[in-house]
User: What shape does this take?
Amino acid sequence: MNRVNAWRGGVVVVAGLVVMPLTLSSCSTAPPAHGKVSGVVEACGGPPPGACGRTADALLTLTGDGRTYKTQANHDGSWSVEVQPGTYVVRSTFARASVTVAAHQVVNGVDLVEQIS
Assistant: This one.
């Protein structure tokens, strides 16, 4: 079998097969950069003298910049969620807070305190 290698305008012809060069930079894109937000959910109030305690399993919603993220607090009331950069309103059942997150930024201490009577 006679093997022929020829370079023809950016295309290699090997034994009748056409091999196209690959440009890897055009085939891959970097994943979007994310940030992270975390905090705790507490409930305060009740009969006098009142008390505060962390709220286990509270549901939270973060909305903003056309995006919505949902998460649930852990058994100790702590929570965290990765989000795309932007400004969000964080809501639990009876409390809300606002937070702005940049790419690769971790924002801790977004605590929600629910006042109950």
Remarks:
- DSSP finds one helix and twelve strands in the chain.
- The two ends are 90 Å apart (CA to CA).
- Residues 85 and 101 are 5 Å apart (CA to CA).
